[in-house]
């Protein structure tokens, strides 16, 4: 997907005043309270406790390239997975995703002193959000300083 399409989706989401979504409390709670685990300085989303031996983790890094690749590959959420009974437009998904991103960032700040990069993508009417910590010499898809809204959001812990 091109930046221009995501930029259009972002602009449409800014016009939303109240999200027309009707769902149960449990779905909303599950969405905002996803489990974040720290595994060898990587933040990942995983429901079950991971006990990865150091040598197995080193093997995983060869598959993903580096810690940033591993992290970005294991922090993916699809908005529609949490609200399956809703027919959400791209703008509505983006609106929800921005709230999720802010909530997750507040939680990540207590787990990491690194800057955080959030990456949005939209394909086949599904909005996906991923994040990773910014590490020197590592990046996922593009240099972190080259992210342009709304494809990527960059948060600095230097506040």
Strand content: 15-25%
Count of DSSP strands: 6
H and E string: HHEEHHEHHEEE
General shape: globular
Characterise this structure.
The chain is α+β, with helices and mostly antiparallel strands. The chain has helices spanning 3-13, 25-32, 54-64, 67-73, 79-82, 90-108; strands at 36-39, 42-45, 77-78, 116-123, 126-133, 152-155. A four-stranded antiparallel beta sheet has the order 3-5-4-6, with helices on both faces. The protein has a two-stranded antiparallel sheet with strand order 1-2. The longest helix has 19 residues, at 90-108. The termini are far apart.
Overview in brief:
The protein has helices at residues 3-13, 25-32, 54-64, 67-73, 79-82, 90-108, and strands spanning 36-39, 42-45, 77-78, 116-123, 126-133, 152-155. By secondary structure, the chain is of the alpha+beta class.
Helix and strand layout, with pairings?
Blueprint: H1 3-13, H2 25-32, E1 36-39, E2 42-45, H3 54-64, H4 67-73, E3 77-78, H5 79-82, H6 90-108, E4 116-123, E5 126-133, E6 152-155
Antiparallel strand pairs: 1-2, 3-5, 4-5, 4-6
Helix pairs in contact: 1-6, 3-4
Q: What distinguishing features does this structure have?
A:
159 residues; alpha+beta; four-stranded antiparallel β-sheet; 6 helices; 19% strand; two-stranded antiparallel ribbon; single chain; 38% helix; globular
């Amino acid at each position: 997907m091109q930046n221009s399409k995501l930029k259009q989706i972002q602009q449409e989401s800014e016009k939303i005043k109240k999200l027309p979504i009707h769902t149960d409390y449990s779905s909303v709670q599950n969405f905002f309270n996803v489990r974040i685990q720290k595994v060898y300085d990587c933040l990942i989303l995983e429901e079950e406790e991971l006990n990865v031996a150091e040598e197995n983790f080193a093997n995983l890094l060869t598959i993903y390239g580096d810690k940033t690749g591993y992290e970005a590959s294991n922090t993916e959420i699809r908005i529609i997975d949490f609200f399956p009974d809703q027919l959400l437009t791209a703008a509505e998904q983006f609106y929800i995703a921005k709230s999720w991103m802010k909530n997750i960032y507040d939680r990540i700040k207590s787990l990491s002193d690194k800057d955080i990069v959030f990456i949005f993508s939209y394909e086949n009417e599904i909005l996906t959000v991923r994040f990773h910590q910014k590490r020197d010499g590592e990046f996922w898809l593009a240099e972190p300083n080259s992210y342009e809204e709304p494809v990527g959001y960059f948060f600095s812990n230097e506040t």
